[in-house]
Design brief:
114 residues, 1 helix, OB fold (Dihydrolipoamide Acetyltransferase, E2P)
Length: 114
């Protein structure tokens, strides 16, 4: 009878452990948000491919976006503040901050790197 109790106890622990690991998380989906300390962090880098005043988007060839579990690629990001469009131009190497806004990643801060 003791092996049965041991098996039951181990089964209960095995079932409970995943719930502990997922508490407060989105079940392993890539929806992480970068940690902010006061101001947005410029923790992403890339090169400007296009600044589109009409759509209020900046196309960036960027490195991996670790906080969002995304590989390096080229994509257009909307900007939170249209004034950011005037801070950069095509060909600029940049550092930028992103935040999740619904299904979109939005540029909240961007700076050209010298």
């Amino acid at each position: 009878m003791k092996p049965f109790l041991l098996a039951a106890a181990l089964s209960a622990c095995a079932l409970a452990t995943p719930a502990w690991g997922q508490a407060g998380h989105d079940h392993g989906h890539a929806t992480a948000t970068p940690v902010k300390t006061g101001a947005a962090q410029l923790d992403n880098s890339g090169e400007i491919r296009r600044v589109n005043q009409d759509t209020k988007k900046i196309t960036i060839s960027h490195g991996p976006l670790k906080a969002f579990d995304m590989p390096a690629m080229t994509m257009a990001f909307p900007v939170k503040d249209p004034a950011l469009l005037g801070k950069v131009k095509q060909g600029d190497k940049v550092k930028f901050a992103l935040e999740k806004d619904g299904e979109n990643l939005v540029i909240t801060l961007i700076e050209a790197v010298k």
